[in-house]
Amino acid sequence: MRNKLLFILTVLTVFCAVSVQAQVTYKFSDFDYPEEAVTWGAHSKVSYFIPVKASKLLKSNVLQLDFKASDVLDISKSFVTVSVSDMPVATKAPSVEDHTLRFTIPFTAEDIKSGFLKVDVLSNFNIDESICDSYNEGVFWIKRLPSSYINLDYDTSLAPPTVTISSFISKADKILLPQNASYELISYAAYIKFYFEREFAQQLEVLNIPETFTAAYNNSILLATSDKLPASVQLSSASKTTSKSNGWLELYPLTINDTDSISQAQALIVTGSDKVGFKKAAETLLSKDIISSAYSKSLAVSSGMDMSYPILKNDRQVSLRKLGVADEITEGIGKLTKDITLPRSIFGSKLLELELELNFTYRPLKNEENAYVNIYMDDVLKYSHQLDNSGQFDEAITFDHLELKKNNLLRVEFYYIPSGGLCVENPVSFYAQINLDRSKFKAISYKDDENLSFFYFPENFQSATPAIYLDIPLNATHIIALSKLVNLLNPNFNKHRYLYPQILPLDSLKANTGKYSPIIISSKATSLTAFSSDNAYFQLDDTNYKFKKEDYENYFNISYTDKIGVNQLFKKDDLTGMFLFVPDGNAVILELLVDQIDGQTFNNTGDLILASTDDSYFFNLRDTANAISNQEIQNGFDLFWQEFRVFIIFGLFIIMTVLLIYIFQKSQESKNNIVDEN
């Protein structure tokens, strides 16, 4: 009997242990990495950053990496090393049979830094010694296979409440709002959802505050002014002693009742006695430094932060250091590259001409050594220069007729040929280092305007601060799309001061005319025409969709039997605007209209998006391929004048001189004829 009882207790213990943990397997595609990826080069390094919630992590976590390497490698001299959190954990050679490699690496919560598991894969490959490696770059490659995965062992039990706000943040996974939330609550819910995803890689689900709390609402952020808090939430006495104008944050224990067992959960209450106080409290969650150092269970906020955002200036310049470029020495022989990402948002979409002041120091060249620096913009060679024995380079490189993408790749390539050629034994290495403070990008000239295209979003909204105007039956389901829109308005991932557009009711639009670049989201087809009726390409009249295409005399008028949403760009005076028609305020249609904005390219873009609840599509109504704008004509004339103005002026001077001489001679002849006649 005693043994039987021990057996039953053991089974129950194991069952309980299994029930509170969950093995979750993720592919690399779940973290926005390609399903498989190829890395080229004899000596290469690729890094992966996997978002992991360390606070919920148990011990049975595994990273499996499967690779296939080039078949022509000398496997006795070729190796791959994997490091986790900057510590090497394994080094292997490709298998003899098929040149594959498999790494199975356990890890724990201690390996998670700043919310990420950092994984580096370093390869060092060689081929037959009789073949010169430098002339066979294409034979060196390693491919990560789709069978690679990461297995996370998460604790799903109802953990004890955390002690401080700072320790709670990494556990937060939901935002709770009252029914019929105000515009202020909706706005800050969208801001906070965006911020947590950008800064902490945490997805926050948005729900309404329930009538009764269950375990499903553990680790929620509850946003509400004090008069909208549930009756069951009774804040601490300290909250009643703070000034009424202050914001208040408090870790609050939620008493829950699930399956007749009472246990503890928690929520972070973000509140204030009025809208002003609430904003102060909510803005605390938009500062990583403040909430990460909030080592208390509650805090009062007497002053929030500046939510304004500076408008770009046309003469702006930015150093490579401010772009986040790493300070490092480039060393080796042959082709040596350094890649620099230039976001279009730095200078805006109207940029026409850009200058790069490039300054670097390199090892002075000896006789019979040759070295070159090549500059590429998005894989197009823009500049090439042969280096000398001075050891210093300081030149300005101009990029004109620009059509920048959302993120552009500047590549600085050093090509060094040692004395005796690339295949000489024991060559002397070349090395160089870019001065990140003296090297800078500078805007030279801008276009007056750009095509009204989603390809240029959000930079074509930088002439004035954007504001979002709502005229839909608003609820928590719309916050996903609003958060995505805030994300699209903040394309620069190296910045930590973000643009938070005001979210306002539509009836405030006319009072703010000319103040903001309007983004109108409405369930009424007439909302745009009431504000701007000069859109020449598309009109929405109740259920009648009127299309006008620039290169067609007649185009389509259509009435759809199903509900079709629309996203179109328009001009109002000097401002660019966006109008989203969302039938019945359908949250799915709104999300698709926003999603389709992203990912458009210069050669595949549009100025109109249509969406149903299942799919979306964009296309152009303007004839951008054949149209030549006045600005382009003016730019062409400016370039021609700048290049040939001396010759033109000199030519006009010669013509005027000859003409004056001719007129003078004719005058003299006429005078002589008159004298002769007399």
Outline of this structure?
The protein is α+β, with helices and mostly antiparallel strands and 678 residues long. It has nine helices and 36 strands. It has a seven-stranded mixed sheet. Strands 1, 2, 4, 7, 9 and 10 form a six-stranded antiparallel sheet that branches.
Written account of the structure:
With 678 residues, the chain is an alpha+beta fold. The chain has five domains: 23-155, Galactose-binding domain-like (Jelly Rolls, Sandwich), CATH 2.60.120; 165-301, Chitobiase/beta-hexosaminidase domain 2-like (Chitobiase, domain 2), CATH 3.30.379.10; 317-446, Galactose-binding domain-like (Jelly Rolls); 457-619, no CATH class; 628-678. The chain has nine helices and 36 strands. The termini are far apart. The model is unreliable at 1-20 and 625-634 (pLDDT under 50). Its main location: membrane. InterPro entries: Cell_synthase_bac. It is found in: Cell membrane. Keywords: Cell membrane, Membrane, Signal, Transmembrane, Transmembrane helix.
Index terms:
6-stranded antiparallel β-sheet, globular, alpha+beta, disordered N terminus, 34% strand, 678 residues, Jelly Rolls, 5 domains, 36 strands, Chitobiase, domain 2, signal, 7-stranded mixed β-sheet
Rounded mean pLDDT is 82
**What oligomeric state do the depicted chains represent?**
single chain
Largest sheet: 7 strands, mixed
Integer tally of domains:
5
The outline comes out as globular
- Uncertain stretches: 1-20, 625-634
Q: Give the radius of gyration.
A: 33 Å
Q: Count of DSSP E strands?
A: 36
Distance between the termini: 156 Å
Proportion of residues in β-strands: 25-35%
**Helix residue percentage:** 10-25%
The helix count comes to 9
Output the strand order for the largest sheet. 28-27-29-34-33-35-36
Structural class: alpha+beta
Organism: Leeuwenhoekiella aequorea
Keywords: Cell membrane, Membrane, Signal, Transmembrane, Transmembrane helix
Protein name: Cellulose synthase subunit
InterPro entries: Cell_synthase_bac
